[in-house]
Amino acid sequence: MRQRQGRAARSVSRRALLGGAGAGLAIGAVGAVAGERALAVRRPDGTPDLGTAAVPFHGPHQAGILQPPQACAHLAAFDLAPAAGRDGLRTLLRTWSATAARLAAGGAADGQENQIALDAGPCSLTVTFGFGHSLFDKAGLADRRPEALVPLPAFPGDALDPARSDGDLWVQIGADDALVAFHALRVLQKQAAGLAVPRWQMSGFARTPGATPHPMTGRNLMGQVDGTNNPKPTEADFGAKVFADGPAWLAGGSYAVVRRIRMLLDDWEGLPTDRQERVIGRRKADGAPLSGGADATERTPVDLAATHPDGTLAVAPDAHIRVAAPASNGGAAMLRRGFSYQDGLLADGSPDAGLLFVAFQADPARGFVPVQRRLARGDGLARFLRHEASGLYAVPPGAPEGGYVGQPLLEG
């Protein structure tokens, strides 16, 4: 880790490479556990200079999985060009990986540089790549497609738009500065010309680092603390829940489920706070479970057997945290890393807003699928949600320096 930090510290920022003044050098490295942000240089007054925070692109796992969601994000999918084949895919992934590594260190793109982020540092930029089910046929790799990478089943209540779902290649871009995130997106789009065609693109956001007086779990657009029960790297079975163990080219990688979930905010906001809390099973003010009593905090374990004096369950039978709990789903778990989105108004005047749900897991058949089936059948929150787009992608392990993401698949 020390050697990697040193390399990051020596990386020249975009502003230096492109002639800007006052360059700040990227010195940070990703924390050893999820929940730690990249380190940042401190200003003279002691406050962090978030622009200097850097997450190394190279490593055993791709960046953008273990790190907390950044303030700005773009999710995009591409379809491989008809004539690209395996050689074209190799060329594209080699180019994309080299570019992502340079941008993550605060450097300029080697090709298609557009100066959008001319005076910015790395700003915790991460770029994550995934492979859809359809990619393997188009690249002549059908015999190497993982058994777990099968199209997700239909779930009750789904209203999916095929034009905004699936895709051969998936890209997740996150950064704590909107221009840095958009810059990376535009460069990758331009570099794909002739090899892959954009299929869909979605943009999201999360809480900006430093917006709260102390680090805490973020809130979604319903105002709820969201992500309390995410698996923790300190748990003995964390790796088994999040990272795949095969096939060989995917070992150390993961599977990403992506869902665009519109929230019916007008209906939700019409509920009184205590009714919202019963739907979720947690207090809205601090995220404490309703089973925990007045002194409970967000981290108080949920007691699904707790009752009120009248014998009724403290956490309602259809409360979201009960229906989604690993204990209710045979231990199924996944590492959620979602972003909120807001895309204006629909024709009826209601907000087109909600959650870009992203979840990493070792096997979707043991993670997302059983949980979503149960949620679709019995979650009280489901009547306030509309699932409008969906995708499943195999996320290869990280690339070593000098290598590229997906190299073991394409050259093994």
UniProtKB/TrEMBL annotation:
Keyword terms: Heme, Iron, Lyase, Metal-binding, Oxidoreductase, Peroxidase, Signal
The Dyp-type peroxidase N-terminal domain, residue ranges: 62-205
Residue ranges constituting the Dyp-type peroxidase C-terminal domain according to the UniProt record: 218-398
Signal recorded as keyword: yes
Cofactor requirement: heme b
InterPro entries cross-referenced by the UniProt entry: Dimeric_a/b-barrel (IPR011008), Dyp_perox_C (IPR048328), Dyp_perox_N (IPR048327), Dyp_peroxidase (IPR006314), EfeB/EfeN (IPR006313), TAT_signal (IPR006311)
EC number: 1.11.1.-
PROSITE patterns per UniProt: DYP_PEROXIDASE (PS51404), TAT (PS51318)
SUPFAM superfamilies cross-referenced by the UniProt entry: Dimeric alpha+beta barrel (SSF54909)
Compartment(s) of residence: Cell envelope
Function: Involved in the recovery of exogenous heme iron. Extracts iron from heme while preserving the protoporphyrin ring intact.
PANTHER family: DEFERROCHELATASE (PTHR30521:SF4), DEFERROCHELATASE/PEROXIDASE (PTHR30521)
Name of the protein this chain belongs to: Deferrochelatase
